[in-house]
Amino acid sequence: MTELGIGIGWRPEIADAVEELPVDWVEVVAENVCVGHLPESLTRLRARGVTVVPHGVSLGLGGADRPDPERLASLAAKAEALGAPLVTEHIAFVRAGGPLTATPRLEAAHLLPVPRTRDALDVLCENVRIAQEALPVPLALENIAALFSWPDEELSEGRFLAELVERTGVRLLIDVANLHTNHRNRGEDPAKALAELPVEAIAYVHVAGGVERDGVWHDTHAHPVPEPVLDILADLAGRVAPPGVLLERDDRFPAATELAAELATIRATLTTARRAPRPAPTAAGADPAGPLAARHGVGAATLRAGRALTGGDPLHIGAGARVSGGPMPAARPAPPAPPASSAPEPGQAPATAAHGAPAPAGQVAVLARPETATEAPAAPAAAEPAVSASVRQRVGVGQAALLSALVAGTPVPEGFDVRRIGVQSRALAAKRASVVARIAPELPKILGAEFRPAFLAYARRRPMPGSYRRDALDFVEGLLLDGRPEQRELTRWWRERSDSRPTTLAGRVVRAARDLFQGR
After folding, report:
1. What is the C-alpha separation between 74 and 82, in angstroms, rounded?
2. pLDDT means per 10 residues in the chain (520 residues)?
3. What is the DSSP annotation of 341-388?
4. What is the bridge-based pairing of β-strands 202-207 and 244-247?
5. What whole-number distance in Å separates Cα of residue 174 and Cα of residue 233?
6. Which class for 486: exposed (0-12), middle (13-18), buried (19 or more C-beta within 10 A)?
7. For the CA atoms of 190, 192, 193, 196, what is the dihedral angle to 10 degrees?
């Protein structure tokens, strides 16, 4: 498995700072780069030997449909252009509807959780195998944060991920900030999730910050990393030395010195966790109870002290170096076996150890330290039967109904928390407004304080189209039909960005009918 070290998410807003920070690698949002037109900053980093990993956000491998071949081909081309050792995506769905469910195609423009059910897992596994065949390098998938839970789930997050790895051989990108978010919002225990994970499959780890609003924890990537997230990182590092750890920051970018301090804190957390003795497991194989930080000797004072470290501190991990400090923990006892109903179907690949051989009874195979073993988890030993159309349709109907409630104002499906769905719906609309304001900064200038309320009113009656550019054009089109006083400036803005005249009301009715007929 590729050793990455300590990294940071590359964003254009902090490109100059990233080039000066003591990092071993960077991650770039795949949809934000073009093959043949790579940003000069990324080119300079690659010339220095800094690894660049493309991180996709639009495949929607957890969706009911098979992966889009064009999106897969684009991601594959970017991996080759960047010389990446792997690519990453998310365990999520981002769109729903269409011919599979005979409903309008809807876009979330956001990572939404898949139900942890057998049907959803079957669909995800097949989609992952399709993606693996299309990509030139290994694929790793990230656990996501969520504001709500699906009703009638059959698996915990840890077991869901473990079975995904067993059946596909895919690697994992574990986001410890997302584990914290799901703990705060859904009451899920991060330690339980980590105990159930096949740690040998971890490709790297994400660390990020968030904020609480109205009793809900929002994974913003726009705030400092909180200590509970570092505690979960310490717990993970006490179980296995992660090949890489990456700091994510997507908004409200601080000074380079603050980013350097957060990177230093991450290094300190990893080093302390690896040096701390691992408590003996209980008779049942579970971790002893108690706060995460206390179990690993990482408390609030240590974490605060780590933030004072600089990139030149002896704890700094240089390019290509490994996180070390203490013996590799012995193989952990396996989590409780799943119920008989979750046994493999005829023809389904059996659960395997890290290198493809069946794991010994009652034991999960754990890779040795990276210095002595670097093989990736092997693919399943046997092919699984294709997922039936009826299974995909069942998953698709549920996802379409949920997404319609989130973006089109239809009733919330039975079993969901109505208040949480409302919070998520408002968050999706606010995200659309923020992105449109960023890609079309002239519109807030033209509309002033009216921009945001006007856009949110538009978003309540118009689901997300295929792209944010189209979203901005549709928004302005609606404003022109409303006859706003800024009509002249808005018309000029439209003409500078479109090859056609703004659609009339009759034209919009015809287009909406065509899209509905085509299932878009």
Report:
1. 12
2. 94 95 97 94 96 97 98 98 97 96 94 97 98 98 95 95 97 97 93 94 96 85 94 96 96 93 96 75 39 38 36 31 32 40 37 33 33 43 82 98 96 96 94 94 96 95 90 93 89 83 50 48
3. GGSPPTTPPPP--TTSSPPPTTB------TTT--PPPPPPSSPPPPPP
4. parallel
5. 10
6. middle
7. 160
Query: Domain segments of the chain: what residues?
Result: 5-342, 417-517
Q: Which residue type sits at 199?
A: V
End-to-end distance of the chain based on CA atoms, in angstroms?
40
Query: In terms of Cα–Cα distance, which of 240, 215, 210, 254 is closest to 228?
Result: 210
* CA atoms within 13 A of residue 374's CA, in its CB half-sphere: 8
Identity of residue 312: G
Cα–Cα distance between 192 and 196 in angstroms, integer? 6
DSSP labels, 400-446: HHHHHHHHS-PPPPTTS-HHHHHHHHHHHHHHHHHHHHHH-THHHHH
* Tokens coding 489: 């400036």
Q: Are 51 and 25 in contact (CB under 8 A)?
A: yes
Provide the whole-model pTM.
0.77
Q: List the structure tokens of 326.
A: 């203490």
User: For residue 172, what are the CA distances in angstroms to 166, 304, 412, 449, 493?
Assistant: 12, 29, 32, 43, 44
- Tokens found for residue 3: 């050793």
Residue 426: count other Cβ atoms within 10 Å of its Cβ: 14
Identify the CA nearest to 148 among candidates 425, 436, 466: 425
Give the tokens for residue 29.
């949002």
At residue 366, the pLDDT reads 32
Other beta carbons less than 10 A from residue 461's beta carbon: 9
* Contacts for 513 with CB less than 8 Å, ≥ 6 apart: none
In whole angstroms, what is the distance from residue 354 CA to residue 367 CA?
A: 7
Radius of gyration of the chain (CA): 24
Query: Do 315 and 309 meet the contact criterion of CB atoms below 8 Å apart?
Result: yes
**39 and 13 Cβ atoms separated by less than 8 Å:** no
Tell me which residue of 14, 44, 60, 144 sits closest to 396, measured CA to CA. 60
Domain 5-342 has CATH 3.40.190.10: no
Q: What tokens does 289 get?
A: 């109870």
| Residue whose tokens read 């920070």 | 21
Provide the token pair at 492.
């000029």
